[in-house]
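Deliverable D2.4 — example input (structure tokens):
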């Protein structure tokens, strides 16, 4: 990776048929931390999130709610746009698949793939899962049901356009041969295995008489684009491709380094289908796709039907933004599945935030304020071992080990006592603690930006701040 080149960072697009989910909050926070770290290095960053707004599930949900479908997606898109404030995200753009510029880009992608000979119309009969919004093979079923939705797929026969994914097996294997194409490594091996099993051409349109809510297929008034073909184009439509009036596409996609964050169930779509579409359209591939695991609830997969879905907005309303960011980054593995329970969240909040960084900051700043001890000039550079990792849990472990060592020094050196008998020595000990606290605050900036800013402000003003994390009763 050229560490001087501009970098483009993006998440997948959440589907706007329900309130924001903690699983997407995890992905968005991961991408945000990475964007903040790269900006801190002085690198030009373009960070995008957005919303996926077409397809059968959206139409069904709007009809069930008794709303016009555009009104329906507008209301839900606003909820996802407010995550910028809720999660304190630093994204530069929010792309909606109903935006005119996205529709224009999706249709141009279609035209380019069609001109390459990779799109053709066929009659097809197969099993279709409305939840997945795709045809699925019988071998994918578990006891006759879709494994992701526990529903029986319907048998569907219609004439659709197909993308010739099977033509790209060798090209995709060459792309996946690059180690940086997928992180972690076992997901790359998973992608390679998918290709070696043999790739099937897949349907990329639906008959308009059955599904009216979608982007029209160019030069065919009877078909609309399959939601996945449409939605994947967001990664470049947000950069104003194909017109590129601001040169963002050239700067960040063609000449920069591209990083996509996605869930582990997205390997086929992000690293195979999307990359094949790019190859077909003559566009450079994504440099790296980073896959995270799922968040479970008491060991069970989160599901609206079970009623165990966690709303990140409700957590933030009670505990604050940085409390949620901390849990997602520290208690959930960046690559494996992780579990959420209200008890586990509360215990982590109390141990690491209230009794940890919150208490340490209060102790040091009270000593500094009471004894009129100001910090010397401190470096604003993050610790290298914290800066250079995608394992955010490991990075926070490093920071909290620093916090523990500072706490231990206070216990051993007792500067609050020393300053009463030896003012010069006591103030020097407190000043050293301020320097250490400043370093912790700088390291925390990409992860807990609000907390970092509060600590740095307190040090600058030499004033004990209000409690960083208020003690809470367990809900």
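Example output (designed residues):
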């Amino acid at each position: 990776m050229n560490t001087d080149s501009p970098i483009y960072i993006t998440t997948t697009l959440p589907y706007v048929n329900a309130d924001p989910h903690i699983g997407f909050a995890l992905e968005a926070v991961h991408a945000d931390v990475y964007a903040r770290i790269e900006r801190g290095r002085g690198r030009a960053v373009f960070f995008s999130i957005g919303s996926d707004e077409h397809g059968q599930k959206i139409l069904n949900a709007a009809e069930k709610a008794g709303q016009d479908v555009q009104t329906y997606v507008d209301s839900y898109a606003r909820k996802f746009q407010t995550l910028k404030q809720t999660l304190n995200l630093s994204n530069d753009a929010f792309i909606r698949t109903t935006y005119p510029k996205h529709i224009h880009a999706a249709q141009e992608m279609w035209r380019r793939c069609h001109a390459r000979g990779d799109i053709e119309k066929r009659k097809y009969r197969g099993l279709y899962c409305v939840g997945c919004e795709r045809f699925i093979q019988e071998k994918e079923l578990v006891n006759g049901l879709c494994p992701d939705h526990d529903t029986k797929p319907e048998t569907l026969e219609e004439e659709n356009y197909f993308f010739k994914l099977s033509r790209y097996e060798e090209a995709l294997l060459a792309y996946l041969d690059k180690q940086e194409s997928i992180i972690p490594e076992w997901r790359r091996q998973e992608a390679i295995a998918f290709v070696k099993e043999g790739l099937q051409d897949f349907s990329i349109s639906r008959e308009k008489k059955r599904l009216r809510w979608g982007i029209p297929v160019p030069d065919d008034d009877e078909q609309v684009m399959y939601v996945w073909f449409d939605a994947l184009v967001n990664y470049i439509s947000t950069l104003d491709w194909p017109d590129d009036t601001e040169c963002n596409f050239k700067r960040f996609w063609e000449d920069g380094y591209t990083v996509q964050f996605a869930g582990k169930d997205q390997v086929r779509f992000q690293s195979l289908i999307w990359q094949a579409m790019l190859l077909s359209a003559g566009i450079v591939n994504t440099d790296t796709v980073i896959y995270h695991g799922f968040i479970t609830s008491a060991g069970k997969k989160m599901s609206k039907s079970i009623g165990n879905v966690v709303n990140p907005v409700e957590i933030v309303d009670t505990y604050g933004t940085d409390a949620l960011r901390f849990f997602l980054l520290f208690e959930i593995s960046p690559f494996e599945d992780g579990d959420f329970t209200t008890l586990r969240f509360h215990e982590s909040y109390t141990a690491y935030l209230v009794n940890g960084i919150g208490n340490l900051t209060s102790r040091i700043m009270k000593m500094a304020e009471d004894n009129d001890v100001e910090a010397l000039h401190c470096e604003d550079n993050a610790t290298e071992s914290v800066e250079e990792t995608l394992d955010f849990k490991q990075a926070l472990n490093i920071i909290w080990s620093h916090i523990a060592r500072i706490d231990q020094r206070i216990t051993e050196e007792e500067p609050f006592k020393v300053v009463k008998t030896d003012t010069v020595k006591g103030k020097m000990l407190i000043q050293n603690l301020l320097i250490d606290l400043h370093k912790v605050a700088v390291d925390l900036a990409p992860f807990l930006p609000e907390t970092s800013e509060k600590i740095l402000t307190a040090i600058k003003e030499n004033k004990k701040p209000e409690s960083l994390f208020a003690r809470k009763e367990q809900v």
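Residues 342-370 form the longest helix (29 residues).
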